[in-house]
Amino acid sequence: xxxxxxxxxxxxxxxxxxxxxxxxxxxxxxxxxxxxxxxxxxxxxxxxxxxxxxxxxxxxxxxxxxxxxxxxxxxxxxxxxxxxxxxxxxxxxxxxxxxxxxxxxxxxxxxxxxxxxxxxxxxxxxxxxxxxxxxxxxxxxxxxxxxxxxxxxxxxxxxxxxxxxxxxxxxxxxxxxxxxxxxxxxxxxxxxxxxxxxxxxxxxxxxxxxxxxxxxxxxxxxxxxxxxxxxxxxxxxxxxxxxxxxxxxxxxxxxxxxxxxxxxxxxxxxxxxxxxxxxxxxxxxxxxxxxxxxxxxxxxxxxxxxxxxxxxxxxxxxxxxxxxxxxxxxxxxxxxxxxxxxxxxxxxxxxxxxxxxxxxxxxxxxxxxxxxxxxxxxxxxxxxxxxxxxxxxxxxxxxxxxxxxxxxxxxxxxxxxxxxxxxxxxxxxxxxxxxxxxxxxxxxxxxxxxxxxxxxxxxxxxxxxxxxxxxxxxxxxxxxxxxxxxxxxxxxxxxxxxxxxxxxxxxxxxxxxxxxxx
Length: 518
What we know:
- The chain is built from 22 helices and 14 strands.
- By secondary structure, it is α/β, with parallel strands linked by helices.
- The chain has a 5-stranded mixed beta sheet with strand order 1-5-4-3-2. It has a 3-stranded parallel beta sheet with strand order 7-10-14, with no helix packed on it.
- Helix 8 packs antiparallel against helix 21.
């Protein structure tokens, strides 16, 4: 069946393999060999899926009905039956999935939903995809799960034309991978040294030096996630799915123990489309009650929020740890990521998730304790230093970019409870909900993964981050021409202050922060 099949029978079939491995290898290495076995089995299943792709190319459902609700479209969210909607039209792309130039993963991420703004932002420099899509049209979408935006008045098209012209004139590759690769080599070498000093050199190394090495390892665990992993999740490093799959999973799944599947559902199909829209953006609270954060004035105030600017920043340190549990208990178990539906997860990805979790546990926990004989008390301290550094690194980079005094906020539902039509164009909303800082700073650009050019990133997610400093002045000029405020603060400190001040403002009872009620 492919993507819609339950993973349970396949996982049960793997148990004899797992038992054999456990019987013949040292106990401390069982997790390592289980991880390799899971990856090998997944590759076999990938091959079998590829073999059956030819049959799917020949099949496109015969549909009599010409109008569809979003609920009806949502039922066609697998490789066997793949529908999506763009600009209010519904398309059956089942026969196109395996030949999609952008890879199977991206198009399957968009199936079963309204993919209008994802379609536009991931094909910024060509109209050919629209020509290809037209032949798969089967009807009209008559209801919507999430908010819609006003049509582009010309602002986004002008941005796209100008950036395309920049690449044509400079002859540069908008997805060139090598800038990310040499940085990756440098960071992973530093991580290896830091890991060795923290765990492998024993008590001869002063504890302060081991703690410093744990801090460095935490930074090295965070940098890939804002650099090449981030680009890979957007298809912005290299021109093939192999590049995105390899760079993304090696850095996020294998090295960091999290999940590219979960990240793409949260970040690519959720946050990037519905930025700062309460009820649709997974990075905001899911509902108006029950969250320890009050980030949007539509949330019901309670006295606890008076102190959120004090208690929230220290809690940001748990982000890395939280993500490793959230992907299992929410994405892979419940098929939800906040307000975003997660399409049925292929068996291979379930196996890979188990395998990479085991590998991460092997090299981060089993090796230091069972092989390098690091005392438990010492190990726990070093482990949490690393994890909190990674958590702070990621959280502060992300939070200052959208949760700020300087941005706008929106809500999903209108007064009648239906998905709203937001009185703003998608591209203009991206500008109004993003904050840049430290333009021209090589230091900040490197350590943030160019997230200090957040506006450009949200307008052109499929363009490599290493081009953002050159593109930003182009976008700023177009924004000025269209009288659109471009949020750019002089330093990271200013961006952090704007974030903390927003938390303080939202802690004041009845305080508004520019919410757009549609």
